[in-house]
Write the structure tokens for this entry.
Amino acid sequence: MHSTLNFCARVLLTLARRHTALSVFPRNSAQIQYLRQMAPANISASCVPSPSACDFRSDTVTTPTPSMLRAMVSSSVGDDVYQEDTTTSSFEQQIAMLLGHEAGLFVSSGTMGNQLALRSLLMRPPHSVLCDYRAHIAVAEAGGASSLSQAMLQLVVPKNGIYATLEDIKDSITLSDDIHTSPTKVISLENPLGGSILPLMEIQKISSFARQHGVKLHLDGARLWNAVAAGAGTLEEYGRCFDTVSVCFSKGLGAPIGSILVGNEELIRYARWVRKSIGGGMRQVGLIVAAARAAYEDVFPTGLLESHDRHLHGGLEYGQYFLSTPPCSSLTWGRPAFWTPGW
């Protein structure tokens, strides 16, 4: 039993150093302390620099690195509501170009990025947003699509049990002008979703179909960095399939705060307006944008490539872990086999 715990402690500490998210474990400070106690003696204390290093509830639980803190100190301090902050403006433009879009908008969270995208794409109800039944916009954004955009969600259950295909979309979409229906105006995809990567080829097929029917596409790319690091496609290849893309810096990249929404100039100009209306305008935001840029420069793609380790995933899959999804990137959901439910 002790050797099993030692093995698990080693794996978890390795994951912590490699920016890999193993969600739902551990859940509280007692579990974190237990894991620290079980760490083998030859593992240096520097491997566990903070409680977040072995807190695996989510890849959002992180601690800023020294380079992020230094970047914050040296950032510009212009007023972003007036679009006068150079750190923010340049980073927005950089990310937009990487994703093949014209403009970007820094927002405080992935939820805000998704909701601004939907609000900017959906101009006149009745309208629906089609998405996977597990999507963040469906289960973790406080009903924002309905309250902010008056949109109904059409939930897709993938037949393959992993990701939505074009056939799933065709079976669920509403293209009719029948007045009894709420027509699908936006297809929102999330990639990766639950650790599973939606293949670029499948996205391209969905994109082509949507554009043939005048349906807009949004990508919740909060963890798109993980898919790209795994070799599934480039940022630009993914980005060009969508009208809007939201990418997050506070998850796998480890920044304290922030996401960027990208799209064409007209859409981002409107999204900036909506952001202000819901209290999302920030003044000297360069302080946190600088940390996000440092996270991007330090972790993507090198840090994520290091964590995308097949041998490590093999140890998880065939060792003492139950995984809820096949390991296909540096993002994995699972639980240790020795875990006691509710502990």
